[in-house]
Amino acid sequence: MIGAFRDVILIVLQLYTWVIIAAVIASWLTAFGVINTYNSAARSVLRALYALTEPVFGPIRRIIPPIGGLDLSPMIALLIIIFLQRWIIGGTLL
Fold this sequence. Notes:
Layout: H1 2-31, H2 40-63, H3 73-89
């Protein structure tokens, strides 16, 4: 039972890693004008990514604000996820 719960948590963390990567790529594409934000389908995808990532990015941004226009919150969130995955697996943390 505990092993199955651990596996589910690891899968959720891995899926959230991909959500963070997709949000970063979408923000780059939006910033460079590749994604048309007036398109309703693109806007709904961007809103979904924002809704999924902002609960994690927001507290990180309050601790470490963007430095020179560079938002480090996705990288810090990914480092936290890697730390949690290694801790759950029971391997080394470094």
